Sequence to fold (486 residues):
Amino acid sequence: MKTVFRDCKFLIPSADVSEMSTGQSVLVEDDVILAIGAYADLVRAHGPADDWQVVDCAGKLVMPGLVDGHNHLCNTHMNLSRAFGCHWEDITAHMLTTVHDPYGWHTTESLYDISLVSALNDIKHGATTIENSTIMADTAFAAMQRAGCRSILAPQMATSFQLENEQLNWQQTLDMAERCIREYHDPGSLSTVVVHVHDQWDTLEEVMLRGMRLAEKYDTKYVTHFWEFPDSRARADAEFAGEGGAFSHYYDKGLINDRCVFFHGSTLNEGEIDRLAETGASIIHNPEINGTNCGNCAYIPYMLRAGVNVGTGCDYGSLDVMSNIKLSLAVHNIMPREYKGISASQAFHMGTMGSARAYGMQEKIGSLAVGKQADIITFDLTHATQLAPLATSAIAYGPEILLFLFLRNVAGMETAETMVAGRFLRRDGRFLHVDEAEMLEKANHWFEKFLPDLATRRAAGEHYSRIIHQDFIHDDEVDLDALLKA
Ligand SMILES: [Zn+2]
Fold:
């Protein structure tokens, strides 16, 4: 089965703007890109074209699907818990009321419906691959399967609390992660699984170390939130002051290496970034949520100069990668730091190849090239007044300006086509395999229910989660065996 994206008005195969072209076509066979070139040449080499499926791209921009390096598809309702205020100055209190409670409230039905709608939102704004850090991993996996995207499932492990709907002790949380790897991790398919420690302050070090062994055993990635909040950074540094700070501690323990993908990295300083670059660990930048959460911003221009691989993520299910690419173009110009700004190519690279490389998928996805997976998106330019003045003549005079103009205003626009591994999820601006309105209606039912439920619990002085041990604690301060019975 062959499909041709014919006569693309703009073809942007990668962040290398010298590859940008007009009038070229992309030929797909089954799940891979067979050839890129002039349509007549493709027919000569691979024809006859009689049974080729044709996408007329004379009025379209064609590019690789975006790679969302970090999301929690089940947390979209969590935005509503801000109605009761936030406590970023005290991370433990903040997590209990605005993160653990919304997570613990979920049923399998609500988690499935909300995760599916969040995935559809990400997909229709350009993502074809989504990392999903999640509770109730089996249900989350089913929702991603239904959404049809390439999935990187990250079952959440943490030990300092237990959710009402997923009461796992520290051993069970490791067992759950290993079972998910065995059942769902298949790098040859659309599904991979990574080891995910939620954060360092809320997970026993023994579990982090065993998690790293697990990632090594199955040769997968080890992902964690890494210093999103100033409070957690300050407390972690105080905890390990005798060892030169938390970064040094975790580095010495073997928990910072090329298997690691760290979310945010917002509070890393220059010295730590230099050390990070030497390890080969990746950072996933989530500028939208950093700005609207507690107001910080990773030093991305410095990271890129230092050679750190940086990808782009959403962090919240209602956000999208393209908006985060746009924000990354803007915020680093504003930050009062020595190194300012990133280029359009760098921003685009982060949302495609940067995220792909973070998960070891750079040979497979993240750009359009012969032999790579056919993860392709198109945008219909026919009514795209917001993208003016996209002029094909600029390809010859300065293609970077086209990429800049595109990235500056494409956020919010929906794809015309979305193809994942040769399968169309969207054609002509509509999903082919799901009724989007019906799914949103189901999710809306849960969104309406969530705040009254949460208010009722709060009024009774109760939570949807319970504390098992203190955050920011050394393993030798707790009885690991006793915690198995907690
Ligand atoms: Zn996150």
About this structure: The first helix runs from residue 39 to 46.
